[in-house]
Amino acid sequence: MTKAAELWSQSRAGQRRALAQLLTLAESDSDAYLEIAAQVHQSTRGALRVGFTGPAGAGKSTLIDAVVKGLRALRRKVAVLATDPTSEISGGALLGDRVRTTFEAPDPGLFFRSLGSRGARGGLSAAADDLLEILDACGFDRLLVEAAGAGQSETDIAHVVDGTIVVFQPGTGDLVQAMKAGLVEAGDLFVINKADLPGAELAAESLRSALALSSRTQTSPAPDVLLVSALENHGLDPLVRWIEQCAERACGRDAEESRRRDRLERRLKALLERWWTAELDRTLEGETLDRLFDRWRHGDSAHHLAAEIIARLQGPGGGTRRSEQR
Q1: 227-262 pLDDT per residue, tens
Q2: DSSP letters along 126-158, please?
Q3: For residues 157 and 150, what is the distance between their CA atoms, to the nearest angstrom?
């Protein structure tokens, strides 16, 4: 039995350490994970995926922590997947499992996982979809996904979840920037967090006005805007109810088919991007890069070098080396 198969079997049996190791394998070694990917996909049960995105500092982590408590009170099995921004300099990330959670005792109905964005655009790790399928297949029925919050354009999350919650805080210019970046178009529900701060009502009214004028209202009603204070436990019940209603809406057959097609397209692109990046890194390492640089230094143009790189990626027979192995 391979390492991936062993971890998969143990994870299905409820072993948390094995589940953590399997998630690490899926994130860091796509070749090894490919051995069990079909089994994982066939074992999924249609868990609800809810995404949380928005500007850094809006309190997404604290809000998710409060939402988890509400869902656990309803006896939902909850898994949280939180993406932390990876440093472009060191390649590392501060993974906040211990920082975010405030649960004092182990809870068999809750699993929390942090992962680095690893340079992925859109504030979400490229491996997120694989990890969500694993958590779904292991029995969690509510999957909460937090985007990195490193900028204003974390919209990719909307393509891997069933409902997207966009979180703002009052008293900042984040709303204007989010409108420019298209974040307003990505949300299914909008939350003004830290509603105990001055300016919360004004921020909510401004957001409602912006949503009423957006292009999306031409085909559907404007999304709701909730005022919430996670720290003071205010407005959380309507938020948890919205998530439960989202689970009911996600069961519609047409919506499910459309969502699956969109996920498949996005996933294929992400997998191809990961593969090409890995192959490019291998192609350019060591003497190969030295030779290409030497040619560029002596006058070769960029398109000649690009052609040689592509030829090296394709291999001798014109097909990819890895596809031949598989």
Answers
A1: 999 888 899 999 999 999 988 876 555 556 666 677
A2: TTHHHHHHHHHHTT-SEEEEE---SSS---GGG
A3: 13
Chosen domain end from 204, 220, 251: 251
Take residue 90 and report the two structure tokens written for it: 């060191």
> Containing domain of residue 2, as a range?
1-43
In a domain, 258, yes or no: no
Taking alpha carbons only, the member of 221, 223, 230 closest to residue 207 is 223
If asked whether residues 167 and 29 sit together in one domain, one would say no
Same domain, 72 and 169: yes
106 and 216, same domain (yes or no): yes
∠ Cα 165 167 171 (to 5°):
160
Domain assignment present for residue 118? The answer is yes
pTM: 0.77
* CATH number of 130's domain: 3.40.50.300
pLDDT digits (tens, 9 = 90+) for 32-65: 998 999 999 999 998 999 999 888 788 898 999 9
Phi and psi at residue 172, to the nearest 5°: -130, 170
Neighbours of 271 (CB within 10 A): 16
144 pLDDT tier (thresholds 50, 70, 90): very high
Whether 50 and 36 map to the same domain: the answer is no
Give which of 147, 21, 131 is closest to 79, Cα–Cα: 131
